Structure formats: structure tokens, C-alpha cells
């Protein structure tokens, strides 16, 4: 059975499930208007952040009914952002494709942390979950986000003009993607199982 072993440790970061105590760190970035400009929802209040951390504490488990993995990204004991893997969407319900996303605190921008965390969760998607394709949807004017995709080696596969009504305006949409057979490394990709779980190790 494929598993995502947590925490995922990279050169500088630890990716783990959210837990009580993360609220102040998450509020520091989720309450900033410029951070949520391209993601659903308004800047969060402290109460909303408390709910979000509580929800995400359980969103670390990949299950058929709730096929997503949301991980806190920790740098030296501080949660500086979060990354998301959503095993649903373009791929339907077979779990063989995954959408990824990311949100980081502005004060840590420009040091490659988002790319490092996105690379780690993408690698887990291919090597541990066994997905066939990882994709991201974004507004092309969010160039910081498209640059993360490009640093991961993702290809821009589609551009839709004024195709989404988002935050009271029509916005362009771009789709970036990379397949398992294109992902660097030569380890065989495991076969996906009907039952996907996460384990803390
Ligand atoms: C999208 C977002 C995560 C990108 O953040 P970012 O800081 O630009 O991305 P990274 O952390 O990967 O840093 C990349 C930058 O660090 C530099 N860098 C320094 N060291 C690096 C390293 N070791 N590896 C990679 N890049 C490095 C890169 O050159 C790049 O610099 P540049 O912006 O001058 O080109 C951030 O803007 C964000 O959270 N935005 C709000 C939420 C959002 O819009 N999410 C996406 C919705 S689709």
C-alpha cells in the first residue's frame, strides 16, 4: 500500500501535518491580503486560522473520501507556509493525478523555500503515492507561482483567456503539469492502490 511517510525532511525544511500551536505562524501569512490575492478566500482572522489549523491537522491523511494532503512547511521550528496535494480534479477519482498548490509567508520569499517544499511533495506524489501526473492551475499574472512550476520542470500545457470568475473579475488561467515518466530520478513508480494512507514515522 503506498504511503507518504511523514515528516518529509529536505535540505532546509520539514514538511509535516499541522498541529495545535501552529496558529500564530499561520496567521502571520494567511492574514496578509497580498498572500491570498490569488488563492480562494479573504485574509483570515485569528478564529478562522484556528479552524483552518484544526481542519488541516486531520487533512494530513490521504483517504478515498478526502483525497488530499496538506502539509505545514517548517523552517527552524516556524511554519513558513503550506503545500497541498489534491488527488482529485482533472484525473477524476482514480487517484492517478494530483493537483499541487502552495502558500508562503512573504518575509521568507526569494530563497527557494516554496520550490524546495513543492519539489518534496511532488516527489512524494510520484514515488510514494504513485500518481501518473502532477498539475497546477494558476493565474499567469502570478509569476512567482508560475516560476515555482517552471523550477520544478513543469510544462505550461494550457492557457485559457478570461476563463475564471475569481474575486469579482474574469481571470486568465494557466495549467502546468509534469508526468511521472518525466520526473527526475530513475526509481520505479509504485502502483497506486485503492486505499491511500499516510503514516507518521
Ligand atoms: C507563489 C509563492 C509561493 C512563490 O514564492 P517565491 O519566494 O517566489 O518562491 P521560492 O521560495 O521558490 O523562491 C524563489 C526565488 O528564490 C531564489 N532562490 C534563492 N535560493 C534558491 C534555491 N535554493 N532554490 C530555488 N530558488 C532560490 C530564486 O532565484 C527565486 O528568486 P526570484 O523570485 O528573484 O526569481 C509565493 O509568492 C506565495 O506564497 N504567494 C502567495 C500565495 C499564492 O499565490 N500561491 C499560489 C496560488 S496559484
Architecture blueprint of SSEs:
Elements: E1 3-6, E2 8-9, E3 14-16, H1 23-30, H2 33-36, H3 46-58, E4 68-75, E5 78-86, E6 97-104, H4 113-129, E7 133-138, H5 143-151, E8 155-165, E9 170-179, E10 197-200
Parallel strand pairs: 1-10, 6-7
Antiparallel strand pairs: 2-3, 3-4, 4-5, 5-6, 7-9, 8-9
Helix pairs in contact: 1-3
The chain binds coenzyme A.
Structure description:
Keywords: Transferase. It comes from Pedococcus bigeumensis. InterPro entries: Acyl_CoA_acyltransferase, GNAT_dom, N-acetyltransferase. It holds the Pfam family Acetyltransf_3. There is one protein chain. The protein is of the alpha+beta class. The chain has a domain at 3-135: 3-Layer(aba) Sandwich (Aminopeptidase), CATH 3.40.630.30. 25% of the residues lie in helices and 32% in strands. The chain has helices spanning 23-30, 33-36, 46-58, 113-129, 143-151, and strands spanning 3-6, 8-9, 14-16, 68-75, 78-86, 97-104, 133-138, 155-165, 170-179, 197-200. The strands form two sheets. It has an eight-stranded mixed beta sheet, with helices on both faces. A two-stranded parallel sheet has the order 1-10. A hairpin with a 4-residue loop joins strand 2 and strand 3. The longest helix is centred in the middle third of the chain and has 17 residues, at 113-129. 33% of the residues are buried. The structure holds coenzyme A. Coenzyme A (COA) is lined by residues 35, 38-39, 101-104, 109-115, 138, 142, 144-145, 147-148, 151.
